[in-house]
Amino acid sequence: VLVQWLRVLKLMSRTFDILTIIFLLPIFILLCILIYFLLFVETKGSVIYWSKRVGINNNTFFMPKFRTMKLQTPQLATHLLESPDLYVTFFGKFLRKYSLDEIPQIYSVLVGNMSLIGPRPALYNQDDLIKMRKKHGIDKMLPGITGWAQVNGRDELTLEKKVEYEIYYLQNKS
Question: Where would I find the H helices in the chain?
Fold first, then answer.
């Protein structure tokens, strides 16, 4: 019975994700066109950056984001860069501040690699975070565009605190 209930919850979550995206699609499309134009004018290279991330069951996938960093930026979590402000583009600062760089991730939700709500997908090279999540079963959840740790501190959180919030979400999600 529990297995069937978990399947129903998973289906309800997926249905909620799809219906929410469909409802908000006109707004997303307008924002994407505006952001695409502004990034295209400001920077060289692709406007979309495909970031290698770790998803459910520690499987890797490529997650799209609007590119907010300069082309030669090392592939590290922003908080691990020595001087992150040197790498962020002018318009990228605005996009990051308001999380608008995350909008292309609706693609990852539509193809089933992510959900709207869940733990943020780790970068493929964040081994310490990946191990901590596996230890607590967080790796069994679909990652999300936003999650409990994200709204409670984002990059200002230590990995331990982030995982603590993710454990709370895992135990209390509904």
Answer: 2-42, 90-97, 106-110, 127-136, 148-151, 159-172
